[in-house]
Design a protein that fits this description.
The protein is mainly alpha-helical and 274 residues long. The chain has twelve helices and two strands; from the N terminus they run H-H-H-H-H-E-H-H-E-H-H-H-H-H. The protein folds into two domains: 147 residues, no CATH class; 90 residues, no CATH class.
Length: 274
């Protein structure tokens, strides 16, 4: 009975803990309003990010001014990359805008290359769409529920683990299961924020694929520390479970003091009648 109760408590702990971890990761990645600025800086400082923006800017120039040759549009886009206003526009888009309004930036870049191009490139109507905004827009209003979810989930999971340790006839299996969950959960975070970005870059999915890898890597900065703590904690619990299992096995094999007392031999009956 105690073993069954402990198993149920551990299952509740791992399930609720998984939901709490998911809420925590979402809260500190795509739903974090302070992180887009850092992500924007990472994109602007990366080669693939600059390449993706250059391509998007060239397309915007060619669309708004069809008379401008494609090579010239690429030159204008390359010149606009170094404009500080571009960084400000990217940060604004990362914080909520669906498009980069870059008409003045591209107009001035064209004028810097050739004054005659300034008349061909308008200051308005030049916008670059920003991919990936749907998820951030969807998750932004639920920041408070995410915060409540991971805090309450953590409390319930820890309580369930404590109950399992109290009622379990042997505590080593509880530590082993909780430690395994910690290691596996941390490994999932490594896959999403380390291996997946590497795969996106290695797969040559185009400029936006490489940019997505930069975004994932930068977004993972907010959860790298907690995931590392979770991984180390899981390893410690697994090692502790092995040591505790050895102690429990030794205690189970040790005979009781009463068992070592041999029963007294029955007195021999003497037949006095020959």
């Amino acid at each position: 009975m105690r073993r069954a109760l402990a198993a149920v408590a551990v299952r509740i702990a791992t399930l609720v803990g998984s939901l709490a971890l998911l809420c925590f990761v979402l809260l500190h990645t795509v739903a974090d309003p302070t992180r887009p600025a850092r992500i924007a800086d990472a994109v602007l400082s990366s080669t693939v990010g600059k390449s993706a923006l250059t391509s998007a800017l060239a397309d915007a120039v060619h669309t708004a001014a069809p008379a401008v040759p494609e090579e010239t549009a690429e030159q204008i886009a390359a010149a606009a990359i170094g404009d500080p206003r571009l960084g400000a526009a990217v940060r604004a888009a990362a914080s909520g805008a669906d498009e980069l309004e870059l008409g003045p930036v591209l107009h001035d870049a064209a004028a810097g290359i050739d004054p005659q191009l300034a008349a061909a490139v308008p200051t308005e109507g030049l916008a670059v769409p920003v991919p990936g905004r749907a998820a951030i827009t969807f998750l932004a209003p639920i920041r408070e529920p995410l915060t409540t979810g991971w805090q309450w989930g953590l409390g319930i999971a820890l309580t369930a683990v404590a109950v399992a340790l109290v009622v379990a006839p042997r505590r080593s299996p509880v530590l082993r299961r909780v430690g395994t969950w910690c290691v596996v959960s941390a490994a999932v975070g490594v896959v999403v924020f380390v291996l997946l970005p590497y795969g996106l870059t290695a797969a040559h999915l185009g400029d936006w694929g490489g940019t997505a890898a930069v975004v994932l890597t930068a977004a993972g900065d907010g959860v790298a520390g907690p995931l590392t703590v979770l991984l180390v904690g899981g390893i410690v619990l697994l090692v502790a479970s092995v040591g505790l299992r050895t102690v429990e096995s030794s205690a189970a094999r040790e005979p009781r003091r009463d068992d070592r007392v041999q029963p007294a031999a029955a007195a021999r009956r003497i037949d006095t009648f020959g």
